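cache lookup: miss for this entity combination. No prior model stored, computing from scratch. Input as submitted by user K.M.:
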Amino acid sequence: MLNSIRPKNRVIFAYLLIPVAIYVFAVFVPLVTAGYYSFFEWQGGPNKSFIGIENFKTLMNDEIFWMSFQHNIFLVVACIIGQIGLALLFVLMINSRLVKFKSIHRTFGFFPSTIAAVAIGFIWTMVFDYRRGILNWILELIGQQEHTKVWLNEPDLVMLLIAIPLIWQFIGYFMIILLSAISSIDKSIIEVSEIDGANAIQRAIYIIIPLIKNTLLVCVTLCVAGNMKAFDHIFVMTTGGPGNASMVMALYGYKVSFMQQNMGYGSAISIGIFVLSLLVIGVFQLGTKLLSSDKEVV
Amino acid sequence: MKKKWVSVFMVVFLITALFAGCGQTDDTTDTSTEDSSTNDASTEDASTDDTSTEENGAYAGELSLMHFSTSEESEGNGGSDGFRTMVTEWDEANPDITLVQNVLANDDYKTQIATLAAADDLPDVFLLQGMNTRAWAEQGLVMDMTEIINSSPYNDQYDHSFFFPFTYNDSIYGLPVLTGGTTTVVVYDQAIWQEAGYDTFPETWDEVLEAKAFFDEQGMDVVAFGNSGKWQANSCFLSAVGNRFTGDEWFYSMVDKSGAAFTDQEFVDSLQFTQDLFTSGVFNPDFNAVNNEDARELYIAGDASAFIGGNWDVSYIQSVLDGTDLYDTTKFAVIPQPAGADATTRTHAIGMGFAVAINAKLADDPEKLAAAIDLAYKVTGPDFAEYVGANYALGGLTKVDNVDLSNFDQFTVDFYNYSYVDNKACEIYDSYISSAVWDVLNTDLQMMLNGDIDPQTVAENAQASYESNY
């Protein structure tokens, strides 16, 4: 860049300071204060007593917290398969020459991502409703009355049912990311593979997926991060119930902090969520990298 | 050069704004937010011109008030309407005081007031929930109002039994507010029950279960109930059923920590009965997946012969059914007597769940404190009681002699008699003890009603939470 139009370093620094300042106050300061409060027994208010790592000891033995963590992991796995897997499938289908009105598919696919999570929660609560829900209505219509259920009151099914709206909402979001990645692939590579006789599945597995590997890695990271902090759908649909059957970490932290007014332990839960989320994202990134490098060796 | 200074100014401005936003102020609720689209919240700044004031001439300035009597809530709800009316009257009588109100829907109010309490940033005047009394008093957040209550001009007219949930270590921390309402009432359609062979709602659950066959034939649920919020089974059912098994003294002992325990056999028996009843099919199958608002619609729509809820549900049912045949045949009954329960009979949980409390920090500003006390007297005093008595046949903290029921229809008279005349009162569990304990119990109760956890485990978990949090 010409020095005459390049802003001074101080100006660049000042501009860059804005997002850093926002980040520090929106993320870093709350995290550090939560870390500080997690060492206190604190019911809220001015009085709190230092108890060292007692809250973390409690956290390590808190069955509900670890069950919530398992539910988050379930959501992560379900959504990686459901959101990214289905998004990839739909993108490959949309890219096919046989499909017409591609932009309409793209627009309607992305549409659920624009709806507020709370509204989605209400919509799907109605879908699963025992009396007027479309699911039980269809079952009755096809003569399967005995299979109708109070769906959101089934402890064994409720996590799966809660994953469905999450998957449905974000398929379009990942479709857009993957579409942009696929559109950057040189068309001649695809054409050559077609001439060589590769069918659609072979093209997807041996050409497209390896070429969008880095984008897929970003998608997985986004998906993991999003589902480790899942809260709003579940809050609306079940508030973690029945009992704790659909409890997730963020909702549990909220319950402990605000419903039980135990701010000290609630802060410890927040730190637990932060550490576990970092670990899970790290493990997934490592795993994806290892898998992709193995493929390259082969 | 000019650009440089503009950018430097912008950065400094932004950082200053961020710091200001994160900084603590003494009076954040004065700049309360308006968010009526999401949570029925509204901020009503009732500032007025400078004129002299009669009662609080010494204080001129802002007084913050936070409550949950929204305009929507007050339509048909006597307590909320009365509260809003009294606040408006007080505001008009005190033109030198700028009353800054932060009004939120009930659930949002509970969350926000707990957050403000945690931050030691409570408004000047607010509504204290009974179960928070002990914790907030220990934290020094709420003012000890014992002397204020003793020197109240209406002290001899107060029903002093209402003060119990707001009393800790012989000090009283609030003036009970709104109306004394039942939280456990069976609302039933007398006409359909007469068809089933019962003149009134049965007095025992065994009879209700016998009637189930008739209602199954009609394609109706016997009793509608909603517990997706998890608190309903506690507030609207267990408070009364538990009392039938344990009696009053057991719960007083729980509140005083003088020996009783959730694991006592009488309480476990009440849980066992509750589980057996909810798994018997007498309630709507989706009772754990719908809330009380959905469940009362089942009664209104004729899909259920009865509904169990609280006085707030009755207000809604009354406003919706008015003018229909079902309105004329809707009657009220206490929760039937469980088999094996012999401690009390015909009890229903009734009380005043909230009290007007004053921020302890107002002790440093006697003039402002005097204004806050005057407001507290106004919204709980005879003006309020007469207003809700005359307009809704409801009672408040201040007793009113000879309530004239002649101007009310049968529905209102029946509910007045149910609430205050015909039945015995017992305590509302979650007006006392601690939110942490009830959160654990309510969560386990929901699983227990599904049959997924046994009553003994529920009692043990609640007891563990009671011992560590209360």
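stored under new cache key. The first strand of chain B starts at residue 42 and ends at 45.
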